[in-house]
UniProtKB/TrEMBL annotation:
Active site annotation, chain numbering: 318 (proton acceptor)
Provenance organism: Acetobacter garciniae
PANTHER family, per database record: 3-DEOXY-D-MANNO-OCTULOSONIC ACID TRANSFERASE, MITOCHONDRIAL-RELATED, 3-DEOXY-MANNO-OCTULOSONATE CYTIDYLYLTRANSFERASE
MF GO annotations: Kdo transferase activity
EC number assigned by the record: 2.4.99.12
Protein name per Swiss-Prot or TrEMBL: 3-deoxy-D-manno-octulosonic acid transferase
Keywords for this protein: Transferase
Catalytic activity: lipid IVA (E. coli) + CMP-3-deoxy-beta-D-manno-octulosonate = alpha-Kdo-(2->6)-lipid IVA (E. coli) + CMP + H(+)
Length: 672
């Protein structure tokens, strides 16, 4: 019975909140506002160059001040606003009322009469928020007055954080309640005025010889002055006082956090049929039956206590990118928990192999449906989100922005094709990219493209794939396979695709004229193609079937997952697939074989890793077909010194930027 009563009370409270928020939003949106902002206060209001401030206003005008946020946020999406509220029911009501407008709260007030009201803890939280780049809103006469009499809390915070105080005044066509502060209730279709006065600086010690009482009096006078200006904004005396102020008259409304309303609507409409799509993928082995509901936002694990950093890697390539960064964050923050999401089963399997840590949890990324994303975020409540490479999901980015969760992009990558696509939708691209707290592009070219598309804050470029650890290996398996191969020379074709395996097999046949014992290992990018590749090579043995090459086998098809670390250690010379004319093209990560001291060849189609191949160019060879690949093979097999030189060069270039994960981890943890 108690549960039913609690549910009813919760429902009634939610309905009341919805009505109050709806009315307040309607009244403020239909009011024509005039903004008057002191030129010295304007850089703080817009958070130019990262400047933050304490915004002070009388408690009675608290319902009107959302409009300042609505006006400023579209001009700088990095803005974050927090409001100090009391711990009582009124404070919780205010917090819930403004939360959907992306205004978060800190609970606490001055400790009086021996009661702990959370004042000291709130002061520490507010200082930390200001240092992180948030604005803090404080009502100096709240929560219970006396009306228009400032308390010392504002001064204490200003001194502690070293931030200025900006006095705010506001007025509109309104009614007034009979509460202690005579709080205003705005009426719709009227006119309103909001004024930001000049910043006030309150030092301490020798920096400020004024008494505390004098400083409080100065703050009260500044607040009374801006309130008086609001009462008569067009009077000649007011015009003289506000000469030089920025003046703008307009209607304002809360920022629509959805990067794309069309994408939001389509995802919502398609949501009922997407579970059937997931079940269809499950029948094809692309989803795990016991975890398919994770893609609808249903968690399969409990949220750990404390801060959670969420890293998302769409597939295997992105997972390889973020692993060094995850390790760096775990090492730097002993109490941090990490959630890693992936989009594919293969990436999930690789994570299980490479990262087994008690503070790391894995889930599948929910599809970009608003309701599913809200469910996911409501459970995990991450403090920071890290996306990798080209992961731009409009609805999830909008939900994170609405929830004041900072999102960053590491190893940002924009291919020619992707750049052309987003250029056709510039508004959507801009609204997505400007929501990132910062972006770290993979290369200078990627950074420029991200800037053109709308990324506002970028860190110095850096390729995390160049800073990854060497691929792991099972030492027992390595010794076992070496025993099978013996002294035979080995050539590896890694991550091959349809359209190029025939050329690789032909090149190996030509190379065997000079090296008859040559064993060619072919690792198809997609293991399910193992049977097809084996048939091309005259029914070559397949590792997925437990088969090993005999003395007469020229080709071994290794159609397994997560074993490239083994094969790179077996072969001194490696060809990187998805790069020869005849396949889709784009290349694969060349740093992986380079870090394991391999001589490398590639085809000319390397657009997905253009910067990486350019960096390693002195240590690799570009071939355009079977004959050129065969010529390179003969060269490295018959000239060990040349093979060693190329491997040494590639290794040195691939291991030159190993401190990048630590630098990025520091930036990520600063957002928690």
């Amino acid at each position: 019975m108690r549960d039913v009563s609690a549910l009813v009370r919760s429902g009634l409270r939610s309905c009341a909140l919805g009505v109050l928020r709806g009315y307040l939003g309607f009244a403020l949106r239909t009011t024509r506002w005039t903004f008057l902002i002191d030129p010295d206060a304007l850089p703080y209001v817009k958070r130019e160059d990262g400047r933050t401030a304490i915004i002070a206003l009388w408690h009675e005008v608290l319902p009107l001040t959302s409009v300042l946020w609505w006006w400023a946020e579209p001009q700088n999406p990095e803005l974050r606003l927090r409001v100090l509220i009391s711990r009582n029911a009124d404070g919780r009501l205010i917090a819930d009322l403004i939360a959907p407008w992306r205004i978060s709260s800190i609970a606490g007030s001055s400790d009086t009469r021996g009661k702990n009201k959370g004042g000291a803890a709130a002061l520490r939280q507010m200082r930390a928020s200001l240092q992180r780049g948030d604005h803090m809103v404080i009502t100096p006469d709240g929560p219970r007055g006396p009306r228009r009499k400032a308390q010392q809390g504002v001064l204490a915070l200003a001194r502690l954080a070293g931030k200025p105080v900006i006095p705010i005044g506001a007025a509109s066509v309104c009614l007034r309640t009979r509460s202690w502060d005579r709080m205003v209730v705005p009426l719709p279709f009227g006119r309103g005025v909001l004024i930001c006065g000049a910043p006030l600086f309150f030092g301490h010690g020798k920096q400020d010889t004024r008494s505390t009482a004098g400083q409080i009096h100065e703050l009260e006078d500044a607040l009374e002055q801006v309130m008086a200006i609001c009462a008569r904004p067009d009077a000649p005396q007011t015009r003289a006082l506000t000469q030089g102020f920025m003046r703008e008259t307009c209607f304002v409304k809360p920022l629509d956090v959805r990067p794309s309303g069309l994408w939001h609507g389509m995802a919502t409409v398609l949501a009922p049929v997407l579970p059937f799509f997931l079940r269809w993928r499950q029948t094809r082995g692309k989803e795990r039956a016991e975890r398919v509901r994770e893609k609808m936002g249903f968690p399969s694990l409990a949220r750990p206590h404390g801060d959670v950093a969420w890293f998302h890697a769409a597939s295997v390539g992105e997972l390889v990118t973020i692993l060094p960064l995850v390790h760096a964050c775990l090492n730097r923050a002993p109490d941090l928990a990490v959630l890693v999401t992936t989009g594919t089963v293969t990436a999930a399997a690789m994570l299980e192999q490479r990262l087994r840590h008690p503070r790391v949890a894995h889930q599948f990324m929910p599809l970009d449906v608003p309701r599913w994303g809200r469910r996911f975020l409501a459970h995990w409540k991450p403090q920071v989100v890290v996306f990798a490479e080209s992961e731009l999901w409009p609805n999830m980015l909008g939900l994170c922005h609405a929830g004041l969760i900072p999102v960053v992009l590491v190893n940002g990558r924009v291919s020619d094709r992707t750049f052309a696509q987003w250029r056709r939708m510039p508004k959507v691209a801009r609204r997505m990219l400007e929501r990132f707290a910062w972006v770290c592009a993979r290369s200078g070219q990627d950074g420029e493209r991200l800037r053109v598309l709308g990324a506002k804050k970028q860190l110095p470029c850096g390729d995390l794939k160049a800073a990854a650890y060497p691929l792991p290996v099972d030492d027992a398996q390595l010794q076992r396979v070496r025993g099978v191969i013996g002294a035979r020379p080995v050539f590896l074709a890694a991550s091959t695709h349809a359209g190029e395996e025939e050329q690789i097999i032909r090149a190996a046949e030509l190379a065997r004229r000079d090296s008859p014992d040559l064993l060619t290992i072919i690792v198809p990018r997609h293991p399910e193609r193992g049977a097809v590749v084996a048939a091309m090579a005259g029914q070559a043995p397949r590792r997925a079937l437990g088969q090993v090459p005999g003395p007469g086998d020229a080709v071994w098809v290794c159609d397994t997952l997560g074993e490239l670390g083994l094969f790179f250690r077996l072969a001194p010379c490696v060809f990187i697939g998805n790069s020869l004319p005849g396949c889709k093209g784009g290349g694969h990560n060349p740093y992986e074989p380079a870090r394991l001291h391999c001589a490398i060849a590639t085809g000319p189609l390397t657009g997905n890793f253009e910067e990486a191949f350019a960096r390693l160019a002195p240590g690799l060879c570009v071939v355009d077909g079977a004959q050129a690949l065969a010529d390179w093979l003969r060269s490295v097999l018959t000239q060990p010194a040349e093979c060693e030189r190329l491997a040494d060069t590639a290794y040195a270039l691939a291991t030159a930027d190993q401190d990048l994960p630590d630098r990025l981890a520091e930036q990520i943890l600063a957002l928690c």
